[in-house]
Structure formats: C-alpha cells, structure tokens
Amino acid sequence: MASILLKNVVKSFGSFVGVQDMNLDVVDEEFLVLLGPSGCGKTTTMRMIAGLEHPTEGEIRIGDALMNDIDARDRDVAMVFQGYALYPNMSIYENIRFPLRMRQVPKAKHDDLIRRAAEMVELGPFLDRKPGALSGGQRQRAALARAIVRQPQVFLMDEPLSNLDAKLRASMRVQIKHMQRELKVTTVYVTHDQIEAMTLADRIVIMNKGVIQQIGTPDDIYSNPANTFVAGFIGSPPMNLIAGTAQNGTFSSAGIRVPCPANLSGNITLGIRPEDCQIGGDNLQGQVYGVEPTGDITYLTVRTANKNIEIKAGREFRAPIDSAIAVGFDTSRLYFFGEDGYRVGVN
Amino acid sequence: MASVRKSGGDNLLVRYIILVSWAMVCLVPILWFLTIGFRPRTEIIVPEPIYWPTWSLDAWRLLVSDWPIALYLRNSILAVAGSVVIDLVLAIPAAFALARYEFKGREDIGFYILSTRMMAPAIVAVPIFFLFKNIGLLDSVWALMLIYAAINLSLVTWIIRSYMLDIPKELEDAARTDGAGDLTILWEIMIPACLPGIITAAVIAAIFAINEFLFTLLIASTSKAYTMSVALANFTGGSDGVIYNAIALVSFIAFAPILILVILIQKHLSRGLTMGAVKG
C-alpha cells in the first residue's frame, strides 16, 4: 500500500498541453476520483501514474520511490480499463492468472489466489469461460479480479463502469467501494460521471483543460465550489449560474434581486442550487417554461429574460406552462463568483 | 404473419439460386479441368467438346512411369512451407514494431517494405541468378525457399501489421501493467489475437509461392530442384507436343495441397477471434 505524489507534472503532446503543472498528493489507502469532462487530462494523468505515458516535466512518486524512469511493468500498479481489456484467447482463469505469472508469484499459490479473487467479484462459476462468452458486467468483474489478484500497491481505474447499463453500474459501484475498503489499496479512479465521483470518492479532483480546478471531499466540493466550472459541473441538475451586477449590497439581473455582501460591485455571477429555491418569494419573477415530475421530485424550469433557472420543487408541484411564477432563494446559500470565475464575497 | 414468412421463404430460395449459380461459375472450370486429366489425349483436342469423358488413366500412367512426380511435389512442398515459415518468423516481429513502436521514419520504413513488392520480378532476375550462382546455391530447393520468402515477405508483413493495428491498444496496456515485457506481449497477447490474420497471410504467401515460375525456372536448372509449376512446362514442348491431360492432372495435384490447407483452417480465415476482448 502506498501514497502517490505528483509534483509539477506537465504532459504535452507536441504543442498541445494535456496536463499543466499538476500537484497532487494521494494519501495511503485513499479513494481518489479524477473527475472532469472528456479531454480534461484525467486519463492522461492516470496513464502517467501507471507508466503508460511519461511526463514531459515533473516528478511522479509511488510510496517514496521516484517513478519517472520506471517501466509500467515494474511499478506494481494494477489497472482496470474502460473496455475491460481481457485477453481474448485465454479463459477467465488464465486472465486472472496472467499478472501472477508475470510477477513470478510461486505457482503453488496461484490457484488459491485466483479463486479468492474470483470469489470477491462473484465470478467463481465462470472461470473456465472465455471472455467472449461473458456478459458486459461479468467481463468487467473479471477485469477487476485480474487487478485485485496480486494485491498491488495502487489500483488505477479508467472509467471502468461507463460501458455498463445504469442498473449494473449502480451495483458495481457499491461493489468497487466495498472492495476498496476491504483491501485498503490506494485507488485512483477516473470518471466523467459526477454521481460515481460523489459516491465513491474520499476526495475528488476536478479537472478542466489539463488544470486542477478544485480538490476536496465530495461534501466540500458540493457546498464550497471554488469557481463557476466546479459549480456548474457538480449537482444534478447543476447549480444555476446567473450573470448580473452587484451594487450597494444588492445583486440584480433581469427578473432577479438578492442581497449580496456589501463589498461586491461590478459584474458578478450568482450561483444558486436548484434545491435552495422555493416556490413563492420575492427574489425571482419569471414564467414557467417546463414542469418535469419524476415521482419523488418535480423539476421546474423558470424562464427569465436572460436565462432558464432550474428549480427542484415539491413532488406535488404542478403549474401550467407560461404562467407567471415568483421564486424565493435561501439567501444563506447564495454563491458569488467574480469575473475570473472564482468565488468572491466569502468570509 | 404468414405472408411475412412466405416472403422470407422466397427470399431464401432466391438467395440459394444466386449462391448456387455463383458456385457453379467458380467450380465448373475446375471440375472440367479435372476431367481433362482423366481423358485420353485424343478426346481433348477434337474440335467439338465431348461433355462426358471416356475415362482413362493415360495421363496418370505417364506421370508415374516417366516422371519423378514425388520429387517435384516434395520440392514444391518443402520450398513453399519453408518460405512461409521464414516469412512468419521475420514478418511477425517486424509487423509488431511497425504497428506499435513509435520511432522516426516508421511510416517510411513501412512503405519501403511494401514498395519492394511493386518491382517487376524480371528486373532483378539476372542479378539474383548471379547472386545464387556465387554463393553456390543454384539448382537447390533451399535457394527457392529463400527466394519465395523474399518475394512474399513484404506482403506478409503488411497483412499482419494491419491486423495488429486493429487489436485494441488497451490489451497491450493491460499486459504491460500486469507486468509483461515486449516479447511476452507479442507471444502471449498479439500473436493469439492476430491468429486469423497470420493464417490468412500464410495462405496467401503459400499460394503465391506454389505458383511462382520465373525465379524457379532460373534457379532450378535440372530436375533436382524442379517444382510442380516448372515441371509442368515439360509437357508443353518437345517431340510429343503439348500433353494437355498430363498438364491438367499435374496442375490439379499442385492445387490440391492448398485446397486441403484452406479447408482445414477455414474457420481461422474469418475474423472473430478478438470478439469479447474489448467492447466495440
């Protein structure tokens, strides 16, 4: 088990910079999730930790050892890929055994280790099958078994659930989290799915365009987003971001007025989460644009002159389209962002 | 529902008619050719075709009595099989490097290898004759083996390379993080995953090699190194004239090993071995 340290890591591909000056400290036994839109550098970061890409600049350490010049095969990390990457010509048993053979684990121990790993992911009855004869979920579990069988220092998981259907994804998520707690192996997990990130992570690293936007616990990231990118990325639906101006302790935009810290002025972006809005109040005047009941909650979209605002209304809420509506904000949960997109007006 | 099923049946019938007609177009010349091998000589050269042959083993008797057919067949098989082995041993690592390693001039080297195939064989015929004369390999099956290998190497390399390019890079990344080195990846991951491509390349190389004529004629100056393709030419000249029924029979014997080979490995000739490795 080991910590991972990235110090001033840069990765460029020709003139394109994939990862910019990245500093990251993954604590021993931590479950760290790299979250961001596609092309944000999260997979590149993971591949550098695995040794499949080499950093252009900077240091990568696993435990205390500098890894920059260590080949992937000698790093003692196990990786799970989005496309499973099972060896098609080998049975599931042989697939799980492959890393044991490569690492010269004594032969006598193989069978025991393989069966234990297969048991953990509930693949016991399928060991004799070829990957082609398994379903997507079973293949992904086989890939997991191959990763856990040799108890590596680090697990790397590159969007392992994104090829599975929603129901299977939810059950595999719980399984992965449980397994990581049981094995206590430091894990770096890449995803673009915020639900996966929020549910799995001890800490989330949000990336955009090769730059870390914020590092924090899921709660921290949700309640204290550092900038508009994080605020707009996390939450479902994400935070409403409304451009406007602040003057003399009041923020105003078309149809919207809320109190703001007196020291704010000029162009400001207001952030308010859909669940912090209530029907009735005097902060927003608009028209109903859409009502989407989902059973336990009703999503309401309100049109203002500038922008549509998403609101989570009570489950019974219904309103005709284009009717006038007044909305109140929980003013203790307002977020203000400056022109550079970063949070302002925080004490 | 019934009408749907009926039209499905009609479709199937049409499909069978088309397929059977096409199979006839392909097979009838070969079968016709085979009957020539079992007709008496005179029946072949009459002006009006005789559809139903008068069966005769004349050609067969001629082959067995006057002709060392076992030697020629042995030479052909030895030279062709040897050349295919040489091709695979050289082409598989080369294809792996061209498909997976990143190095300066990779595309140029790949194209250079392929370009050797574009040259007309006649251009190099004379130099090759003197080359083999100087190293004392004229009139030898080993020389043929080397020449066939050289002729097909570029094609075999390219076919295998293009299969390897289709193997998902993730497989190799997975093997690397599992602790495998390049040789292990090639041997345990890439070769099994590319097996259909490797077999296809080998069969194509074998077909080209068994039909090779020009270089074989140059190198094999006596019957010691004759292969089936050159020995065939024996029946086209000389005082006996063109002996069509013997030519037909010998051609069929030369064609048979490849036919048997293809039937045996038919299932590998189609793709699908990588199915299930990676979600497409």
Automatic annotation (TrEMBL), chain B:
One of its GO terms (biological process) is transmembrane transport. The keyword Cell membrane applies. It is found in: Cell membrane. GO terms for cellular component: plasma membrane. Pfam families: BPD_transp_1 (PF00528). PROSITE patterns: ABC_TM1. It is a multi-pass membrane protein. Residues 73-265 form the ABC transmembrane type-1 domain. Keywords: Cell membrane, Membrane, Sugar transport, Transmembrane, Transmembrane helix, Transport. Belongs to the binding-protein-dependent transport system permease family. PANTHER family: INNER MEMBRANE ABC TRANSPORTER PERMEASE PROTEIN YCJP, MALTOSE TRANSPORT SYSTEM PERMEASE-RELATED. This is Multiple sugar transport system permease protein. It comes from Sinorhizobium americanum.
